[in-house]
């Protein structure tokens, strides 16, 4: 998944009103769009190096978008709008080892009355829903964690996946870790105990976990290595 434009470097100053960040650049301070509604726990430190892209849309109010934050020498992708694009590219290039190569992929597929799953994949042998989550949190060296705040939306998706399973679908939760420094992944039960309990219940009902980290370059971000999920 390539960025819209080349990366521009800056220094993080502050985040406010959820969607705004002040960034110090060579030409002074700019206000950029923060495409992440989560807490971004551990990343929003004044002085952290960041990378932005400039939009091609002349009518856009905020010309810059925050893409990457560097914390303790580690690059972390924070744009949740790119997560599905990263995963879709991996699906199209057969990089997700747990899935068959000969599949048809559809995005944003409706299920039930009020749910849309990120992907529906079908093959000769099965049909499956995949819901994708972006992961940035790491409080222990080498360990990625989700969520970074209480997620009622995440709980809803697990419940809907369980319903889909009862209707004959295989079900997957894909955790895309936008970091390069983690070898394992676990649920942050101290942050959201209900999510942890619900996920544990869903695993007994045939929920499958897909967990991969990412590789960064100046051009973009790609799905990389399979990461071990620790229950």
Describe this structure in words.
This protein has 231 residues and is α/β, with parallel strands linked by helices. The chain folds into two domains: 70 residues, OB fold (Dihydrolipoamide Acetyltransferase, E2P); 150 residues, Trna Endonuclease, Chain: A, domain 1 (3-Layer(aba) Sandwich), CATH 3.40.1350.60. Helix content is 16%, strand content 44%. Helix 2 packs parallel to helix 3. The mean pLDDT is 96.
Give a nutshell description of this structure.
Helices cover 16% and strands 44% of the residues. With 231 residues, it is an alpha/beta fold.
Features:
single chain; 231 residues; alpha/beta; OB fold (Dihydrolipoamide Acetyltransferase, E2P); Trna Endonuclease, Chain: A, domain 1; 2 domains
What is the rounded Rg?
A: 18 Å
Main beta sheet: strand number and arrangement?
6 strands, mixed
User: Quick check: average pLDDT?
Assistant: 96
What sequence of helices (H) and strands (E) makes up the elements?
EEEEEEHEEEEEHEEHEEE
Portion in helices: 10-25%
What's the CATH class of the largest domain, please?
Alpha Beta
Structural class: alpha/beta
Q: Between the first and last Cα atoms, what is the distance in angstroms? A: 30 Å
Percent in strands: 35-45%
List the uncertain runs: none
Count of domains: 2
Side-by-side strand order of the widest sheet: 7-8-9-12-14-15
Q: Please work out how many helical segments DSSP would assign.
A: 3
CATH architecture of the largest domain: 3-Layer(aba) Sandwich
Mind sketching the topology for me?
Elements: E1 8-16, E2 20-25, E3 28-33, E4 49-54, E5 64-71, E6 74-77, H1 83-92, E7 104-111, E8 115-122, E9 127-135, E10 137-140, E11 143-146, H2 152-166, E12 170-177, E13 184-187, H3 193-203, E14 207-216, E15 221-226, E16 228-229
Parallel strand pairs: 3-5, 9-12, 11-13, 12-14, 13-16
Antiparallel strand pairs: 1-2, 1-4, 2-3, 4-5, 5-6, 7-8, 8-9, 10-11, 14-15
Helix pairs in contact: 2-3
